[in-house]
């Protein structure tokens, strides 16, 4: 259970190749290292989080990882679903739609 | 295989309740009726499409469905990943990140 | 007055340079040619539209323009604010927030 | 000059009215109080920032403000344009597209 579900997409710009999955894998490694609960989808990775400071830490670490791979510019697209009235889970959100 | 993967989120506004999954289920029904390939995630639904006109048709039908449920305002958030150099699949995109 | 305000961002991927404004200018030219009302912001371009088919036409034409410039992959990020209860304008939305 | 331009949209969910500008004005007040440079557009507010921690602080304060207004659930949509190779300004990004 978490206070928010964050859907995150990172796109390196100007890399010279249309093949970008190595960068997305590097970003996913950061999530694994931090031990946050996540689930990969095609356009975004859903992440269960309890506060915005952890999101900021994730963004900072992914940037550092991609910069070490030679990336000079990147776009993040983020959707945050924050409920104050009840806790959320990634699987719970999906189950409610699919039932 | 498809020319683009579209990640789609629909949010009804001003409904008076924080429980929105019935609206998202109605939107997913439209995808099933149209026979497009899709996969539900927590923040977005990924859809394989070959042209923008089909996306426009999806948006129009979801709006009509939600309006019939009493919705007076809605937000769509859409990310389109369009490759001209090779075809895409939802599962292929996920597999490349997870391997 | 329009039925929806669409906030649109287009990002060419794999271009080999972090300088992307020539592509965004080309996309803006498409809006001018189509005669739709728009306003440029830093992250997105706001556009007043009355139907999803016109949005599909815009996306198709921008893709063609960028492909002619050598782009092999692109991301669109789109937010649609659609009100069924009253018509919208870009300036009206901004004025309500700034007053 | 800033290290990133963040385009931010906040949407309160389940408020019972389609009129949401009072909430967006409250969010803009937070930006003014923090003294960050911003510019209102129709779909998003562009903000010049130097680090992700300040973004986290903004998100936390806007949530608190909206919760005090009775909001029980909210969506943030965020696009971050981060350049490591040169600094950015909101006005510079717009000028490059419009020239």
UniProtKB/TrEMBL annotation, chains A, B, C, D:
Q: Where is the Thiamine-binding protein domain?
A: 6-98
Q: Which NCBIfam families match?
A: MTH1187 family thiamine-binding protein
* Family in the record: Belongs to the UPF0045 family.
* A Pfam family that the UniProt record links to this protein: Thiamine_BP
Q: Which InterPro entries match?
A: MTH1187/YkoF-like, Thiamine_BP, UPF0045_domain
Tell me the protein's name.
Answer: Thiamine-binding protein domain-containing protein
A GO CC annotation given for this chain:
cytosol
